[in-house]
Amino acid sequence: MEKNRFVQLVADMLYRTDRESLNLETRYKSLEEWNYLFEVSLAMMLEEEYQVEVTPEDFDCTRTLGELFHRVCEPSLADKN
Predict the structure, then answer these.
(1) How far apart are CA 43 and CA 57, in angstroms?
(2) Which residues have a Cβ under 8 Å from the Cβ of 22 and sit 6 or more positions away?
(3) How far is it, in rounded angstroms, from Cα 50 to Cα 13?
(4) CATH code of residue 18
(5) N or C, where is the chain less crowded by C-beta within 10 Å?
(6) InterPro entries from the entry (predicted)?
(7) How many whole angstroms separate alpha carbon 53 and alpha carbon 46?
(8) 51 pLDDT tier (thresholds 50, 70, 90)
(9) pLDDT at 75
């Protein structure tokens, strides 16, 4: 399932947070690693993996990994089908 892959891609970027604790309900801005550099790195990874442009507004308008996936990645996946 693509949502699980999304969570795994984010987990692969983490070094302090227990990766097994991540899921779609995770409030990603509360992660210990969250800062401006992590935001930029996450945006770049999502652009590379999903061929989407991630804006600061995308981060401002979402709280959980599931919300971020729904806002940023799902539309690009629908375009491929």
Answers:
(1) 12
(2) 7, 10, 11, 14, 65
(3) 16
(4) 1.10.1200.10
(5) C
(6) ACP-like_sf
(7) 8
(8) very high
(9) 77
